[in-house]
Amino acid sequence: MLKTLKAAVIAAACVPVMAEAQDYDTMTVEELLPLAQAEGSVTVFSLSSRIARVEAAFEEAYPGIDLIGLDMSSAKQIARITAEQDAGVYAVDVLYMADSPVVLRDLLTPGRIHTYVPPRVADQLEERFKMPLLVHRLSTKVLMYNEQFYPDGSPVKNLWQLTLPEWKGKVMMVDPTQRGELLDLLTEIALHPDEMAAAYKAQFGTDIAVDSDLNGAGEQFIRALFMNDLVLVSNSDDLNKAVGTKDATDPPVAFGTYSDRRDNEEEGWALQVANDVEPANGILFPAVLAIADKAPNPAAARLLIDFMFGDDSDDGGPAFAPFNVPGDYATRSTIADDPDSVPLEGLKAWTISSEAIAANRARIADLIITLQ
Amino acid sequence: MSHATPVPSPSGRRLLSSRQIVPLLMVLIVGVLVVAPLLRILLATLTPAGLTAWGDVLASAMSQNLWWRPLMNTLILGIGVSAGCLLLGGFVAWLVVMTDVPGRRLLGVMHTLPFMIPSFAAALAWGTLFRNSRMGGSSGFFESNGFLIPDWLAWGIVPVLIVLIAHYYSLAFTIISAALSSVGADLVEAAQMTGARRPRIFFGIVLPVVTPALVSAGSLTLAGAVSNFAAPALLGLPVRMQTLSTRLFGMIEIGQAERGFVLALLLIAVSGVFLFLSDRLVSGRRAFVTVTGKGGRTRRFPLGRWRWPLFAVGLGLALLTTVVPVLVLVASSLAPQTGALFSNWTLHFWLGEGGGQIAQGQAGIFRNSVLIEALFNTLKLGLVVALLSMVLGLALAHTITRHKGTILANALSQLAFLPLLIPSIAFAAAYIALFGAPIGPLPSLYGTFALLVIAAAAHNLPFAVQAGRSVLGQISTDLEESARLTGAGPLRRMWAIIFPLAIRGLLAGAILVFVKMVRDLSLVVLLFSATSPVLSMVAYRYAAEGFMQFANAITVLILVICLAASLVAQALQARVQKWKD
Predict the structure, then answer these.
(1) Per residue in A244-288, pLDDT tens?
(2) In chain A, what percentage of residues exceed pLDDT 70?
(3) Which positions in chain A touch B360 (Cβ < 8 Å)?
(4) pLDDT at B137 over 50
(5) CB A177 within 8 A of CB A365
(6) Do A241 and B425 count as a contact with CB atoms less than 8 A apart?
């Protein structure tokens, strides 16, 4: 009897808390702050070790809230949060990760994470960056070349050139069956069959003939690229060295990361993006921020996500500074792009749609496996 | 005055109840630590998605590239590496332990080093020397100097084989030399007095006695080779060579975990067949006990005029397998440009103040405030895990050797070997599932240091068990029997008899575990929640940001720690085994 009563009292006490939980998403920073300070800490898994710098800035801006940042790859984050939640452990608040198609399929759809858009910056984000996942910034996998060896600009103007004998064994990428971003890149190419067919016609003057077992010109391109002795490597370091090293004789081109260009001077590289490429030079892919299901510190979690979008200044202030890298792009419209990089609108890359990629990724992975 | 006798079969013995408790306990421990995670992985592949994955891997258009060709590469690597390691490691162990070769101590220390150097360093060293034009603008040392390096020598199975043998032979050396050191002088002397020639002494006495150690070493190097990721990824991918481990890693990385798990189970099955066969090989032979109450000094073969040439061979091997990779590692922590390892050296990455032009203003590792803390955490983790797994390993190895030939012993020895082959990401996920929720009165271990230690000890169990077995197999049951008859309990017998006699093998195993642990990243990242990092996490942070020099500086630091640990272990062993020189 007493037990039932006790349970009833607890249940009653919980009601206002639960009602409040519904409101976290619409609270302002000022309303979140005291709740977050009462929670006292916030735990975040991050794909980038730059979370350490966010920690310093966050704890300075909001004293009394301890940020616990753990850096690990997206695949590990997914494995860990899945195992934890299956065991009934709810220990993490915020996830900062890439691999959005897998995140969508394995975390968002089963309700393991939730999308929270900070009201403060909601108006400054395009719709596609708010749904289904909140996108913090965009990184690239685009065609890179050696600007010292090719001073007149990119030697490649059309992706189909990469399938010609002159580029045999001279196109590189990190193995797409080892790294999700490269699989996303090839999947995105497969999702643009019409543009790839038009580019084929522009290159060769004839209509493309697609093999009967393939769907469209994009997949045909993937097969042709692998048949032309595409060189796979295990990490982007090898790739940058191979493409970018100054004074190289006949360097290859590669699908790499635009922002690696920032290391040119220090490493003695001459990496440059090949932007003038038909139909596109690669992809822009998102880094997403999400709140874990049953996050133990719901207010602090939201405060942190809000914080990571930076202040109203041009560069986003100290909160965004760790992520303000030339060649990466903020989704928040008030944050200006780096003056020395190609602006976002000018970059001829496809921005991936997590949903479309998620639906087609496995098929393209199968295709690639048969081609290796 | 000791004797070599075949171990009596235990089957005819009456089993006392106290004797049954220990094996049962062992079964329980192995069940929880090893079988449960394995079952979990198996269950994950029996879901609808998992069953599709079985089909994809074994019977589809992809099977060729997903399973058969990687399997073939993996088998070539596994068999080739373990054969190469036994030859090299066995030769060096014989040289160091059994002969009067000059500089034995130096050689002994140098040949334990390769295993402490991460295999990626050896692969990097190979690349630095042999990289060819397939890597575009950045040729290696030989091509830059006018030698043309063919693809087969720069990439693919040949360099991976060489690099892995160079890495793992020291594992074989460590285990075999521990066993060789217990071949008593009396045996050899007896043979010499009866006029046996050297080859006969070698094949008739030494080889049979160390057979268990050879099998242990062969199994561990095989498992190491088939599960190694770094070398085949760095040197194999450019010519599209995939092994089961690169495939497995890739499938988990791109979100097709079921396929990864299927590959992991198949890898375990294939390795299991090999382990079973090698177990058969040993149990078919007679085993010999050589460590009895009166073991004497080890007598050394005089090498005569071969002393110095063989010293040169041993030293040359050590230089190639340790000095070259270490040099590349150290150089890459000093060179500002990762492409030009030997120019413009700077200590910035070690000691430099932040804020300058180098490395985007990052300060050197010794100015990183978390480094000291990470150092401390790493030592703590390594020591605790090494200790726990050695206790577990000794108990298991003891049970296995004392119940030799029974189903129980076979099952335990097979199971205790498997953790090496379970991918850490799957292992860690299983541990979170098992211990994440409170079990009865026990609190949830989630995110605690304790859970990390348990999982790590289980993961490293094969090293401990194999090291323990190879030595325990030689210790005579007489000693224990007489102690038991005089009323000594199991713990006391363990402490007063087994432990001192087995110390060398145990410490060899403990060092292997320690080394594995201070380098390990996957388990730590997945199981540990505290913000206080370990060194491998700090190295990962640097590497993830593209600061390879800092990461390599930390790897050098880890190497120094491992070396120090092995020196301490040798000193310790000399103190315990006072009756040896």
Answers:
(1) 988 888 899 999 999 999 888 888 899 999 999 999 999 999 999
(2) 94
(3) 262, 266
(4) yes
(5) yes
(6) no
DSSP line for B446-463: TTSHHHHHHHHHHHTHHH
Class of residue B486 by CB neighbours under 10 A (exposed 0-12, middle 13-18, buried 19+): exposed
Grouping H, G, I as helix, E, B as strand and the rest as coil, residue A67 is strand
Average pLDDT of the segment spanning B229-238:
89
Domain boundaries, chain A: 21-138+286-341, 140-284+358-371
Work out the pLDDT band at A153, boundaries 50, 70, 90.
Answer: very high
Torsion of the alpha carbons at A289, A295, A298 and A301, rounded to the nearest 10: -30
C-alpha dist (Å) from residue A306 to A119, A287, B8, B218: 8, 15, 73, 56
Q: Do A101 and B255 touch (CB under 8 A)?
A: yes
pLDDT tens digits, A83-137: 889 888 898 999 999 999 999 999 999 999 999 999 999 999 999 999 899 999 9
Poorest-pLDDT segment among B146-155, B218-227, B462-471: B462-471
A 270-329 residues with CB < 8 A to B: none
Tell whether B242 is within 8 A of chain A (Cβ).
Answer: yes
CA distances in angstroms from B377 to A47, A50, A66, B528, B538, listed in the order given: 23, 22, 21, 12, 12
Answer whether B327's CB lies under 8 Å from B321's CB: no
Interatomic CA distance for residues B483 and A99, integer angstroms = 62
Q: CB neighbours of B461 closer than 8 A, spacing ≥ 6?
A: B33, B34, B389, B392, B393, B396, B416, B419
Residue A128 Cα distances to A122, A125, B24, B237, angstroms: 12, 8, 59, 36
What is the distance between the alpha carbons of residues B230 and A234, in angstroms, rounded to a whole number? 9
Query: Do A199 and A159 touch, CB atoms closer than 8 A?
Result: yes
Please tell me the distance in Å from B448's CA to the nearest CA on chain A: 12
> What pLDDT is recorded for position A6?
52
Burial B511-531 (b: 16+ CB within 10 A, else e): bbbbbbbbbbbbbbbbbbbeb
DSSP assignments along A190-254, one per residue: HT-HHHHHHHHHHHHSS-----TTS-HHHHHHHHHHHHTTPEEESSHHHHHHHHHBTT-SS--EE
Going by C-alpha positions, the residue among B413, B430, B457 that lies closest to residue B39 is: B430
Yes or no, beta carbons of A242 and B432 under 8 Å apart: no
Phi and psi of B294, rounded to 5°? -120, 40
Tell me what ipTM this predicted complex has: 0.86
Report chain A residues whose CB lies below 8 A from the CB of B64.
370
How far apart CA B201 and CA B193 sit, in angstroms, is: 11
Per DSSP, the residues of B188-225 read HHHHHHTT--HHHHIIIIIHHHHHHHHHHHHHHHHHHH
Identify the CATH number of the domain defined by range A21-138+286-341. 3.40.190.10
pLDDT for res A14: 46
By DSSP bridging, strand A271-273 and strand A134-146 are antiparallel
Q: CATH number of the domain at B20-136+148-291+307-332+368-576, out of 3.40.50.720, 1.10.3720.10, 3.40.50.11710, 3.30.465.10? A: 1.10.3720.10
CATH architecture of the domain with range A140-284+358-371: 3-Layer(aba) Sandwich (3.40)
Residues pairing with A43 in the sheet: A68
Grade residue B175 by pLDDT with cuts at 50, 70 and 90.
confident
Q: What is the pLDDT of residue A115?
A: 96
The DSSP bridge partners found for residue B307 are none
Q: Which tokens is A57 given?
A: 């800035």
Return the closest-CA partner of residue B475 out of B321, B228, B288, B195: B288
Q: Tell me the domain boundaries of chain B.
A: 20-136+148-291+307-332+368-576
State the smallest CA–CA distance between residue A226 and chain B in angstroms: 11
What is the average per-residue pLDDT within B245-274? 88
